[in-house]
């Protein structure tokens, strides 16, 4: 499975930590930046992630900004993107079961490393339920 990852400066340190975890678990990682803590604009990275997911360059995207909010708003401007901030373990599960998110989002300044890893694992290990939920996610793009 190939996972694309991007952040702004506020998520850079957490991005580095998540990349180390993903590589340890043998995921293929596509790092879309940013590459330092120098201030950048989070919409650029949300848009870049959306373009890569829509072009099938990765199976899943992970985005990080300070809160997870700004960068998720940017990604969700793109038809076909379902970016969700995983703000609890229960949400990590339901976001996969019902929404089949193609981008998961975290707050580098608002979430603990251990919670982020736990939520990535929950999301990856939960199945999408399909059926009426497939119909609903199709309605998002109509
Ligand atoms: C950057 O300071 C911060 O505004 C950004 O990372 C994010 O939290 C925006 O939603």
Question: Explain this structure to me?
Answer:
This protein is of the alpha/beta class and 142 residues long. It has a single domain (2-140), classed as Ribose 5-phosphate Isomerase B, Chain: A (3-Layer(aba) Sandwich). 46% of the residues lie in helices and 17% in strands. The protein has six helices and five strands, in the order βαβαβαβαβαα. The protein has helices at 12-24, 42-54, 69-76, 89-97, 113-125, 132-140; strands spanning 2-7, 28-31, 60-65, 83-85, 103-107. Strands 2-1-3-5-4 form a five-stranded parallel beta sheet, with helices on both faces. α1 (12-24) links the parallel β1 (2-7) and β2. α2 (42-54) crosses α3 (69-76). It is globular and about 45 Å long. The mean pLDDT is 98. D-ribose binds at residues 8, 10, 42, 65-67, 69-70. Residues 8, 10, 42, 65-67, 69-70 line the site of D-ribose (RB5).
Question: Which descriptors would you attach to this protein?
Answer:
142 residues; alpha/beta; Ribose 5-phosphate Isomerase B, Chain: A; 5-stranded parallel sheet; 6 helices; 5 strands; globular; binds D-ribose
How many DSSP E strands?
A: 5
Q: Which sequence of SSEs, written as H and E, runs from N to C?
A: EHEHEHEHEHH
pLDDT averaged residue by residue = 98
As a whole number of angstroms, the C-alpha radius of gyration is 14 Å
* Main sheet: strands, sense, barrel: 5 strands, parallel
Strand order of the largest sheet: 2-1-3-5-4
Heteromolecules bound: D-ribose
Strand proportion? 15-25%
Number of domains: 1
CATH superfamily: Sugar-phosphate isomerase, RpiB/LacA/LacB
Distance between the termini: 29 Å
Number of helices: 6
Helicity range: 40-55%
CATH architecture: 3-Layer(aba) Sandwich
Shape descriptor reads: globular
Structural class: alpha/beta
- Stretches where pLDDT is under 50 for at least 5 consecutive residues are none
Name of the CATH class: Alpha Beta
Q: Do you know the CATH topology?
A: Ribose 5-phosphate Isomerase B, Chain: A
